[in-house]
User: Which sequence fits this backbone?
DNA sequence: TTGAAAGCGCTAACAG
DNA sequence: CTGTTAGCGCTTTCAA
């Protein structure tokens, strides 16, 4: 036997108490400006007295919109949930939406049953969705874009579809900035720890690194691949060191990886930045707490999340919005890039 | 003009196509066992062909349950969102719920308007809620417990109300385990960096530390207070060092704080563990990536989140569940506690 | 085992 | 400016 749920007062009750029709109460609740001021007051009083709260389901059903937005996280990404970057994006989105009438539903896209997610999304259960994908094979979502306002966090790999809305940072430029800062200290043998090769952000960052290296007139540096986690940074660095290539500077595509790499560097008896200069991306607790603290390019993940939410809401409301929003990044010089 | 939303097929359409009544389709959708097998097949065929997905709002309205569960995060806690512990709890809850018919709504409890949250919760918008609170003044939620199945993550400070359901770890025991491990290496001057004094977990951990110290026959150690973040660990450690008290071992109430503290220790020219042994709680990337790696007591945050979700669901379904579930913890010996 | 019919609580024309 | 009247898409007695 299910627990009893206290009966909520209905719109009708409010109407009776205020001596008006349900329609009028509805108007007041929805902030219509065509209700006489004293009536508004009377209704509001009744609402307060009864502690009335409109029923979401009924409202959704009647107006054909759910007032809820999904935040979709592929399961594989969920494993990276501990990544402060994602956490911040989510937080930003949730915070923004808390100022609107929308609710945020966290949706984990199970890899075992991808249809489940798209069914849910397509099923009219939400008015829009934010797609946070770490990996690339999100073509399934691109299809959905036709039937539901979607906003991607970070450029999806498959861009074929027309109306894909994206909130991104200029990863290539960010990587270039970081690499340049570190190269400016006179380093001649840069290397990089890149991210998953099926991820837009990773590829762009690697490209930015390569560009900066080339612009500095240096030969292409060695590349090792990680997956943005500290552990992967460690193994990538080990790989780099083992390769025997001469390395005097490292651009890691994420602070977490830089962090992991530093352990290996220290274990090898090398010093940062004197032996190896480091620059990276993300100003998270890893970047701030490493020693020396990491020279990095900060992207404001929280704002990015908020922006994503803002965009879906605007699209849901039929406002026209730019397809691609590039969030600013900022170079933060700390100790790790040398002098 | 809002963007057009593709019209979803309705139950009625399915009924027509399958040549049955809407009631029957509804039965099939809800897995009733009183429908003839061939009818079931016919209906399922129609559903598949039409790509039918039941409308959540209508269903909620009709059955008086929303199939959604709120995850409430006080705004102050949201600031700690980057705490891997919280991220994991959320992930665990989301993952678990993804295997059920329930949806997870992320709710940030604005401090500026606390009534908003409880209105939402009380308003019949969700069937239950998970309360993740970092701070203590959550008496407001305890009130709600009367009208909605609530499950707390971590013991709330105000426990007056009867039916508060909690999924927690034995913080005192965990702290004791950690402290004992570190004391066992012969340390005589332990200190601790504690957490916010209005948080159950922090208080319990401090108590566990003190107990272990006392059991070891040592005089009470010095205490500094942090807020679980790396930064606060730094300042707390600075404070401890500045106090002039002799310290040869440190129990930090969170790995993040231990991590921050280690920077200060290193800056002071001291070595871990030879000069100062360290033990802590949480096996997150901070604990694993510190050098030396931290001896710590692991609590499985993901499982805790899943358990919380499981409990609300059971309560919603009227099953009886224990009021207090204590999740196991595990001591992990690594380098930082000495030898 | 199935269908008919009456709502769930709210919004949205349409009159007035 | 306000009330009347239909539904929104589904579930759920109640009969058959």
Assistant:
């Amino acid at each position: 036997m299910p627990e009893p749920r206290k009966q909520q007062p209905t719109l009708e009750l409010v109407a009776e108490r205020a001596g008006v029709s349900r329609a009028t109460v509805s108007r007041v609740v929805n902030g219509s400006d065509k209700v006489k001021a004293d009536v508004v007051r009377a209704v509001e009083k009744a609402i307060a007295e009864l502690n009335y709260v409109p029923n979401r389901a009924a409202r959704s059903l009647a107006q054909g919109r759910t007032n809820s937005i999904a935040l979709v996280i592929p399961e594989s990404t969920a494993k990276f949930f501990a990544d402060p970057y994602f956490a911040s994006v989510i937080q930003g989105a949730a915070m923004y939406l808390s100022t609107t009438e929308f609710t945020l539903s966290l949706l984990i896209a199970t890899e075992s049953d991808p249809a489940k997610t798209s069914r849910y999304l397509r099923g009219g259960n939400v008015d829009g969705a934010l797609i946070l994908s770490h990996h690339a094979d999100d073509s399934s979502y691109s299809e959905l874009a036709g039937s539901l306002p979607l906003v991607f966090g970070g450029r999806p790999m498959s861009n074929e579809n027309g109306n894909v809305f994206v909130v991104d940072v200029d990863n290539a430029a960010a990587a270039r900035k970081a690499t340049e800062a570190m190269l400016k200290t006179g380093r001649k043998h840069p290397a990089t720890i890149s991210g998953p090769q099926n991820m837009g952000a990773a590829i762009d960052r690697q490209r930015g690194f390569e560009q900066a290296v080339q612009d500095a007139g240096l030969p292409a540096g060695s590349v090792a691949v990680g997956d943005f986690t500290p552990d992967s940074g460690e193994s990538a660095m080990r790989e780099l060191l083992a390769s025997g290539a001469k390395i005097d500077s490292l651009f890691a595509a994420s602070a977490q990886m830089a962090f992991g790499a530093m352990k290996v560097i220290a274990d090898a008896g090398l010093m940062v930045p004197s032996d190896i200069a480091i620059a990276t991306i993300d100003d998270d607790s890893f970047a701030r707490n490493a020693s020396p603290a990491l020279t990095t390019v900060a992207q404001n993940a929280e704002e990015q999340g908020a922006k994503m939410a803002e965009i879906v809401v605007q699209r849901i409301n039929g406002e026209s919005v730019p397809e691609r929003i590039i969030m600013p990044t900022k170079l933060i010089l700390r100790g790790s890039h040398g002098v």
User: Anything to note?
Assistant: Residues 1-6 of chain B have pLDDT under 50 and may be disordered. The two ends of chain B are 70 Å apart (CA to CA).
